[in-house]
Amino acid sequence: MSRLQVVSGKGGTGKTTVAAALALALATEGKRTLLVEVEGRQGIAQLFETEALPYEERKIAVAPGGGEVFALAIDPELALLDYLQMFYKLGGAGRALKKLGAIDFATTVAPGLRDVLLTGKACEAVRRKTKQNKYTYDYVVMDAPPTGRITRFLNVNDEVAGLAKIGPIHNQAQAVMRVLKSPETAVHLVTLLEEMPVQETSDGIAELQAANLPVGRVIVNMVRPAILDETELALAQGGASRTAIAKSLSSAGLGGARKGGNAERLVTPLLDQAAEYAERHDLEHGQRAVLAESGLPLHELPLLAEGMDLAGLYRLATELRKQGI
Amino acid sequence: MTPPLSLDPAHTRILDVDPLIDDPKTRIVVCCGSGGVGKTTTAAALGLRAAERGRKVVVLTIDPARRLAQSMGIDSLDNTPRRVKGIETVEGADGGELHAMMLDMKRTFDEIVEAHADGQRAEAILGNPFYQSLSAGFAGTQEYMAMEKLGQLRARDEWDLIVVDTPPSRSALDFLDAPKRLGSFLDGKLIRILMAPAKVGGRAGMKFLNVGMSMMTGALGKLLGGQLLRDVQTFVAAMDTMFGGFRTRADATYKLLQAPGTAFLVVAAPERDALREAAYFVERLAAEDMPLAGLVLNRVHGSGAAQLSAERALAAAENLDERGIVDQEAGNVELRTPEEAALTDDTTTTATTPQATATAATTTPAAPPAPAATDQLTAALLRLHAERMQLLAREQRTRDRFAALHPEVAVTEVGALPGDVHDLAGLRTIGDRLAAGSNPAGAV
Ligand SMILES: Nc1ncnc2c1ncn2[C@@H]1O[C@H](COP(=O)(O)OP(=O)(O)OP(=O)(O)O)[C@@H](O)[C@H]1O
Ligand SMILES: Nc1ncnc2c1ncn2[C@@H]1O[C@H](COP(=O)(O)OP(=O)(O)O)[C@@H](O)[C@H]1O
Ligand SMILES: [Mg+2]
Ligand SMILES: [Mg+2]
Q: Locations of Low complexity compositional bias (chain B) (predicted)?
């Protein structure tokens, strides 16, 4: 298992949720994981129902078996100030720069610069060791930008190359790239079984691979439960007699089976719902096949019908453990 | 003045889109909302509907699903509207046309540069690495360029209706905020200082800035090897003539959004997060004096058998299951699990022994015997229905919450289609549902 786990995917498919569940799953059995957020949206705090995270590593959850999950919201401006401080002992000058808007300027004007600061901080956490010379974190899980931006985001070297050909940022970018392109890193993509997210996933995999970035797993999220099996689907799509269904409904206490009776009037809408289910089932089947073509390991997480909460998050983590993560 | 709080969905105002798109005074419709809720689909469906009802329409889509773009013939990315073939004019509504395009943000940015700088200068800008990074990746560039394109289309005055999709940002508010952010950034003090420190140095208050400036040049120069800064300075110098222009243009388009011919549609799915975003947006539009036409609640579920509750459906399904087990025991199949029995029953739906069904009949004398396979199917249909009813209830709760918060907002509901929307026929269906107003029972 790679020590840096990057979670991307189309917007809204569940990147933040899956990243958090993964951090929990990896922390079981006494391990320590760090969950990092890079887009300044406080998605982790919302999910764990805590107050906004500062730019500071904080314990936010314990995992079954005594593990711990820490979280960090990386702020590119503060990361740049840190950085300036580290290399140039800027002190007050750093603050003056911030006041001027220069830091804001530098981090927003050159997305490559911002990205190298964000990935740099994550890589630093991956490599950090304790006094006992053990890794501080067993795993670092990153809630990363969406598929459309992930390759540019991780491929900082190329991005920064055009902007900074020498200097510390350049060196930093190269150090970051060494971690990101090594087996120490795995980039996972979260998707739904729908056309657009699956398309985006396929495109994303191709892009990442072309950039020599290590693609890990595909995680299909919000999978709806299978309610009709193949047999029942076939029956619903023609095999079964409507009268027989009406009688069956009636025998279950749902009213009369004769034409116009309460049970009989349920037959058409129930079969319509089954037809819709069948159509969706076929579509999902097709999308699964597309995902399988990638040859990457596929995992599926159920749609939690009641909505997401902490309990649901632990459930997803357990599910990931069960599936061998 | 506050409208009465209403939890009763019957009191929700209904949004009627036909009068809106038919009205010649409506010139711009903006579809906004958080990502993945169906903004692009709604924009395209409305555009098609308006065209088929006789208006000359252009739809500006941003990041459409690939198959949808292909079916409209706008997947070529040339950044200009294309006439869409295959529209079916409603009787008596001749003269309608549908044009559509997909926004290419980098191309749009390049075009602004080309239009405002002479050949050599334009080339210098376009080749500058800082410009390239900014035009391809600045958060907000897409929103700014969408606004820019909208302004351009409106200025051409070739269409009587422009339907605009908005970028797939996480927050609907980005569409309103990002252009200003980029505009003031390109226009801002800092960039002016970078451009010409000497110009502002004379004023007393600016001394500090100059000190800051040299500090910044020093620090950033060291950090980036000096080169980025030089690139920025070159870029800024080359863009000199265009500054001010950005801000002015962003402001002008913003005003366009407040003009009387503009209507906003907020699109949301009946889910907690999407509706929360929608509520923020509604409040923001009000604060900005931007005209909200209403809320499109997309991908709503309905049921033709809503009279049967989830609980009753599940109880009935269990009842059938239990009898199925009894059947199997009676039917001499003790070596098979119920699942296996079901599988073999598949090919022989009617082959269940009369004895087995007779057993079933004795437990429920009210009904005639039904074969076990049918019972199993019926139980599955009932479970499927129960799931649907639970979904309906959840959607209803989120909707009611929104309606209680914003009873003044007119709503139309669009049922979820089982598959994606990827052709004109699909868009037409969505258009019909948009126009059918608030009709959850009709939603499938
Ligand atoms: N398995 C699941 N079952 C039910 N709901 C889920 C599941 N996974 C995610 N969600 C819900 O889906 C919504 C989107 O999830 P999330 O915020 O994790 O996505 P994201 O990809 O991080 O989104 P963004 O692109 O906006 O960052 C949230 O409301 C979340 O609670
Ligand atoms: N009412 C609907 N029923 C079924 N699918 C829909 C519906 N509305 C949208 N979709 C599908 O949902 C996906 C996302 O829609 P899209 O319009 O691209 O969203 P947005 O522009 O808000 O990101 C597309 O695949 C689209 O076909
Ligand atoms: Mg997220
Ligand atoms: Mg879209």
A: 344-365
